[in-house]
Amino acid sequence: MKANTWIYAILAMALAIVGCAKKEVSETIEAQGVGNKVRLISWSEYFDPEVFKSFAKETGIEVEYITFEDPDELEARLASEPGAFDLVVTDDLSINRLAELHLLQPLDKAALPHSKNIAREYMGKAFDPGNEVSLPYLWGTTLIAFRSDKIEDPGESWKALWNEEYAGKAMVFGDRTEGLGIGLIANQLPINSSDPKELDVASDALLAAIKNVGMKFGSDATVRDGLESGEIWIASCYSGDAAMVAEDNENVSFFIPKEGAPLWMDNFSIPSDARNVAAAHALIDYMLRPEPAAMNANFTWYGSTNREAEKFISEELLADESVNPSAEVRARCQFYYKSDTHREVLLNAAWGRVQEALRLRNKDAKTVAVKLGIE
Questions:
Q1: H/E segment holding residue 229
Q2: Residue range of the domain that includes 1
Q3: Could you tell me if 349 and 217 lie in one domain?
Q4: What is the mean pLDDT of residues 143-156?
Q5: Do 258 and 275 share a domain, yes or no?
Q6: Counting runs of H as helices and runs of E as strands, what totals does the chain give?
Q7: Same domain membership, residue 66 and residue 215
Q8: CA 275, CA 125: separation in Å to the nearest integer?
Q9: Residues 79 and 174 in one domain
Q10: Which residues make Cβ contacts (< 8 Å) with residue 96, sequence separation at least 6?
């Protein structure tokens, strides 16, 4: 009995210690106004799941990971689902648009001490000069990925997407900026052009691809799935997505075309109506630590904006020039800039032509299917 009493006493002491520790963490969280869940909306497969687990273990805050497919969907959801999200990760151009619509709130810099780890070259960009509503996460390029078991040698140009040998098997992003940007860069024109004639060249190129190659348009997830299954032979693709698919499928290869490539950078921001603002800041700051930042870079195979993370990033990733291009290659690449009203009108008109062509193609395909009795 005495032995059992002693054992129970020890167990009681241990439980009391654990209880006190949990109570202390809980009180700290409560004092900071941090709930036990933070709702993050981002691109799919954009974080190492182990980072979420380690964050939850350290803070007691669970991460609910919600995904979107394109910036238009994100904007619509932020506008129509108030309070549904605490943290958002999206591209540079979207940050500007979301801020203009008052869908983002200023960041509390005092709650983000690890922002000091971000390399200066990624800070203060035109879409948010003072980093008032955003902090950099990952960066990359839009390049070409292809099935090496279907295509022996696509060449080194964006023009490969227009090769009629790949009819019905080519895809580009169905996003206005990226779609027209590829039409521009394929014709060696600046991706931020405001010249009506140059934008006509871009839309004409996409119209020709729809007519002659049966060009398909899709999201990043659609591109990944198509390349993985072999339904798509060649496509525009984000560099990290291409690397992830290639890791799982030896028949997928990728390259930065000789004309260069669009550059982009994704960022952390907090929606204006976030319910758990303190938890959102806590998660951002955790992601800006060197080790979690490196884990996410290694998982996604994208370039990290975190200068302190480099010592934890795999040597293979750092050496991959499709992900971390040389200065010579990077000099041929371009970031997208915020469009002024004039360019917005031109972009809408050019993209409208592409959308109408796709609508007519789909309508014709449906008519044929009905006539053949397969729909």
A1: helix 220-229
A2: 1-30
A3: yes
A4: 96
A5: no
A6: 13, 11
A7: no
A8: 28
A9: no
A10: 127, 128, 338
Amino acid letter at 75?
A: E
How many Å from the N-terminal Cα to the C-terminal Cα in the chain? 79
Token couple for 351: 């993209």
Amino acid in the structure at residue 315: E
Cβ pair 212, 235 in contact under 8 A: no
Query: Would you say residue 9 has pLDDT above 50?
Result: no
The reply to whether 113 and 206 lie within a common domain is: no
- Kindly report, residue by residue over 47-84, the tens digit of the pLDDT: 999 999 999 999 999 999 999 988 889 999 999 999 99
The residue whose two tokens read 């669970």 is: 62
The CATH number given to whatever domain includes residue 164 is 3.40.190.10
Whether residues 11 and 44 fall in one domain: no
Burial class (CB in 10 A: 0-12, 13-18, 19+), 21: exposed
| Residues 21 and 63 placed together within one structural domain of the fold | no
186-216 pLDDT, tens per residue?
Answer: 999 999 999 999 999 999 999 999 999 999 9
pLDDT digits (tens, 9 = 90+) for 216-243: 999 989 999 999 999 999 999 999 899 9
C-alpha–C-alpha distance, residues 64 and 27, integer Å: 22
Average pLDDT, the chain: 88
Give the total number of structural domains in the chain: 3
> Which 8-state DSSP code applies to residue 104?
B
Q: Which two tokens stand for residue 302?
A: 């994208």
Whole-angstrom CA distances from 41 to 44, 62, 68, 176, 271 are 9, 14, 7, 21, 10
Q: How far is CA 67 from CA 45, 256, 367, in A?
A: 9, 27, 34
Q: For residues 194 and 343, what is the distance between their CA atoms, to the nearest angstrom?
A: 5
In 191-316, beta strands by DSSP E: 216-218, 234-238, 252-255, 262-269, 303-304
Give the torsion through C-alpha atoms of 23, 24, 25, 29, to 10 deg: 100
Quote the CA–CA distance of 267 and 95 in Å, as a whole number. Answer: 8
